[in-house]
């Protein structure tokens, strides 16, 4: 698993929104400036997060985005899977995105990568936005 810029920026935006939850809706420009994210890129990410029901939005002068779920209900794993897919180091050990790969020929090697997948997956599933805000 390797995080893309999409996942990194999405996580930064969610953490920012969690920290400013009491302020209501927050504009894209405010988040982009605070987290050094290109506004146009952030706009695309926010729409994807909204479609996945992590965010809600409002239009107008006091509009913007806010969390649609409590920060403790959003795991890092969910966000990373949304933008990057599998958490596994190879598709042949992925639980959600399985595809056959040459490494499956060696069972012990496959077991090592499955252990890595389990550790990473468990850590990211148990860690929420609330844990890092």
What does this structure look like?
- Helices cover 52% and strands 6% of the residues.
- The chain is mainly alpha-helical.
- The chain is built from six helices and two strands, in the order H-H-H-E-E-H-H-H.
- Strands 1-2 form a two-stranded antiparallel ribbon.
Describe the secondary structure blueprint for this structure.
Elements: H1 5-19, H2 28-35, H3 39-51, E1 55-58, E2 64-67, H4 76-84, H5 107-126, H6 129-132
Antiparallel strand pairs: 1-2
Summarize the structure.
It is built from six helices and two strands. The chain has helices spanning 5-19, 28-35, 39-51, 76-84, 107-126, 129-132, and strands spanning 55-58, 64-67. The protein has a two-stranded antiparallel ribbon.
- Radius of gyration, CA atoms, in whole angstroms: 17 Å
- Fraction of residues in H or I helices: 40-55%
Number of strands: 2
The shape is: elongated
Broad structural category? mainly alpha
Q: Helical stretch count?
A: 6
Q: What's the story with the biggest beta sheet?
A: 2 strands, antiparallel
> Numbering strands along the chain, what is their spatial order in the largest sheet?
1-2
Low-confidence runs (pLDDT<50, min 5 residues)?
Answer: none
Give the amount of beta strand, in percent.
Answer: 5-15%
Mean pLDDT metric: 94
H/E element order: HHHEEHHH
How far the N terminus sits from the C terminus, by CA atoms, comes to 23 Å
Task: Offer a few descriptive terms.
133 residues; mainly alpha; 52% helix; elongated
